[in-house]
Amino acid sequence: MQKIQMKTPLVEMDGDEMTRIIWKSIKEILLQPYIDLKTEYFDLGLQKRDETADQITIDSAKATQKYGVAVKCATITPNAQRVEEYKLKEMWKSPNGTIRAILDGTVFRAPIIAEGIRPLVPTWKKPIIIARHAYGDVYRNVEYRVSEPGKAELVFTNEKGEVSRQTIFEYKDKGVLMGMHNLDSSIESFARSCFNYALDLKQDLWFSTKDTISKQYDHTFKDIFQDIYDREYKEKFEEAQIEYFYTLIDDAVARVIRSEGGYIWACKNYDGDVMSDMIATAFGSLAMMTSVLVSPDGNFEYEAAHGTVTRHYYKHLKGEETSTNSMATIFAWSGALRKRGELDGLNELVEFANQLEEASLKTIESGIMTKDLALISELPNKKTVSTEQFLVEIKQTLDSIRG
Ligand code: NAP
Ligand code: MG
Fold first, then answer.
1. Which of 276, 268, 165 lies closest to 220, judged by CA?
2. 1-114+291-403 falls under which CATH superfamily?
């Protein structure tokens, strides 16, 4: 059998712990037998990040800007305990944060839906994709604990020294106080990423804020989205027969619960943080959640939404059998390969990505799954398999699909 050829390499970002083990097995069992895999390899494993003073992370993000498509394994974000465990020179920053800062993108999180793993909301038939703005608001706020009577003011001083001043509140007693910010440039790139991704998937885009209460702050988000839509995207959306629609967040929540899914829901930073966990849980499992970072200039980085599954890794190190779900990592690869195939006009590669996803779903739907899914699946003939066996089973399904 002739292997599928690639033109442009994928940027491959390797990672840590259990997902690093899965990463290698996916390549060996599900990719390399079929594809002459071309990648520009970056080892973002914690050890290598430490050795290179995190330069490797920066290099991998720059390579993504150069080539356009990356696939990333989950990585450890070091904390004090990790500094000790890996004898790190420094508590390196989150690789995802570093990559996002360079690519300036929006993260889209989408659930993988399989028969037998029923969403908790019975009407949901298709995925709901959450787009979370990843800059500012409460995540970059300034807070103050008011412990005595006094006056709180919002003061803005421009470069000429002119001052605008408003009273926030006159405290008669103790209380709390907070200031936060955002930037037109960041909201604009958030909006463009959302519009581009909606066109890419040919799905409707919903956007919600609390503009009725927040008449400057949230209303600016609404206005920027509308303005960019009218000027740059309206025609393209009409051509693709998809819709952009803004609604108040309360209304959005009610509509989401009643909907059957199949759209992208763009949220401000805090709303997206909370709603993405709600959506992920209601769809069934963190191990079935994929994630893609889309930059406003059209670069894509695919990954699983979950972490390095440390608890399973320690079992693996002790020689115990694990049953870790590789679906989200497989879909990160298929997403990246499909995108690469589309950009390079390689139909065979696009078709392979579709077949790989189909084989993965069929395997689960035939009752063969990892432990996390077996616990929630309603299929009568469930069979729990190991991490490795699950991949071998998918390969068998894939071979039968490919004929
Ligand atoms: P986690 O790796 O997502 O795992 C949390 C728990 O969720 C696991 O212990 C497991 O539950 C379950 N789980 C997650 N993914 C699973 C899968 N594929 N198959 C089966 N079960 C799965 O989160 P964490 O333990 O909080 O974080 C571990 C490390 O990952 C940390 O160092 C963190 O910094 C890093 N992290 C990285 C990313 C990223 O790179 N994008 C994201 C989040 C966290 P049971 O143990 O009950 O089976
Ligand atoms: Mg959260």
1. 268
2. Isopropylmalate Dehydrogenase (3.40.718.10)
User: Which residue's CA is the nearest one to ligand 1's atom 46?
Assistant: 311
Q: To test ligand 1's pocket by mutation, which of 72, 82, 286 has the most ligand atoms within 8 angstroms of CB?
A: 286
E-assigned strand segments in 230-373: 244-248, 263-267, 289-294, 300-304, 368-369
Instruction: Please tell me if the domain spanning 1-114+291-403 has the same topology as the one spanning 118-140+182-283.
Output: yes
pLDDT in tens for each of the 403 residues of the chain?
Answer: 799 999 999 999 999 999 999 999 999 999 999 999 999 999 999 999 999 999 999 999 999 999 999 999 999 999 999 999 999 999 999 899 899 888 877 889 999 989 888 888 989 999 999 999 988 898 889 999 999 999 999 999 999 999 999 999 999 999 999 999 999 999 999 999 999 999 999 999 999 999 999 999 999 999 999 999 999 999 999 999 999 999 999 999 999 999 999 999 999 999 998 898 889 888 878 889 999 998 888 899 999 989 999 999 999 999 999 999 999 999 999 999 999 999 999 999 999 999 999 999 999 999 999 999 999 898 999 999 999 999 999 999 999 999 8
- Of the CATH numbers 3.40.50.10810, 3.40.718.10, 3.10.450.50, 3.40.50.720, which one belongs to the domain with range 118-140+182-283? 3.40.718.10
Query: Does the CB atom of residue 57 touch ligand 1 within 6 A?
Result: no
The alpha carbon of 249 is separated from its chain's Cα centroid by a whole number of angstroms, namely: 21
Ligand nearest to the CA of 276: 2
- Going by alpha carbons, the residue nearest to atom 27 of ligand 1 is 307
**CB neighbour list of residue 398: distance below 8 Å, 6 or more residues apart:** 30, 34, 355, 356, 359
Residue with the nearest Cα to atom 37 of ligand 1? 307
pTM for the full model? Answer: 0.89
**Helix/strand/coil percent split, the chain, to 5:** 45, 20, 30
